[in-house]
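#help-structures
NK: newbie question, is this the right format to request a structure? protein is Gfo/Idh/MocA family oxidoreductase
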Amino acid sequence: MNTSRSSNGGAPLRVGLIGYGVAGSFFHAPLVNAVPELRLDAIVTSDPDRRRSASEAYPGARTVPDADALFADADRLDLVVVASPNRTHVELAERALRAGLPVVVDKPLAGTAAEAEALGALAAERGLLLSVFQNRRWDGDFLTVRDLMAEGTLGTIHRFESRFERWRPRLKGGWRESGDPLELGGLLYDLGSHVVDQAVSLFGPVVSVYAEADARRADAGADDDTFLALTHRSGVRSHLWVSALAAQPGPRFRVLGDRAGYVKYGLDPQEDQLRAGRRPEPGARWGAEEESAWGTLGSTERTEPVPTRDGDYPAYYAAVAEALRSGGEPPVSAAEAAEVLRVLEAARVSAAEGRVVRLG
């Protein structure tokens, strides 16, 4: 795949960001801005308050009212980032690719694996990068789990438990809580995209899925308390929870092997740091976790704390920039996104019909 961009020489690659809501303002804009090889050139938002906020935060970037205005100036861009509502992801990604632009799409890439595969085929046909923003692969605790597996400290793993639970007993409103299937709202496609992606990236393809998806809060239109049980082809079983109604969250990770187990509580700190207005800066430490939040390694005979690796969300966009310059592979591919979506689709069927769904 030829994804290199050389039209602007050695200058930073120019990025157009579509959407300046939670995803755009708290995640994509600051992370793009933190990578020296990238420059935020344009921000798309029709909301006057968001346009004002974007201009104040990124005075070097222009604001435009809609995607039409952005694509009208496609020649001045090297990358488009789609951080708009889920229902628009496929349409905007396709428009970017047909305009000759590489594209990063916030998760989920699409509503179905077939749509993700079609976008991947279009990107390959045009020789353009298409990547999905699965930032939770760069959570510090997830990087720590990867390290423990690589070192063989846990032995042969047989069970992986992952929880992304929050305490939000009152609805906030908006499309993420809508019951309209076209919106792709609910936690299965939101936080579920993260926990399934992490499980698949660690343990490989899934052969069976069982799921329970409930709307527990009063007037909730979409699932807000969901459980998935996955059996991987490798033999590992993953049990995954996502919830907005966890008054007392369980461990973020519990990884059990035949030599030891690893248990870790609490979420990676990077999201809270970004929401609080902190920004990654080149050369400065980022994503560090307090020692009191470290996980423990061992068994009932003996456990010891394990320092959590620093989280590194900027590494995602650094890898995107490198792929664009070199023509290499993106940090998260459309094929990987399709694998996750196959699991999410199966989970939706399983929850609706109360049965285990077998995959190929």
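mod (FA): yep, format's fine, and the tokens are attached above. The mean pLDDT is 95.
NK: thank you!
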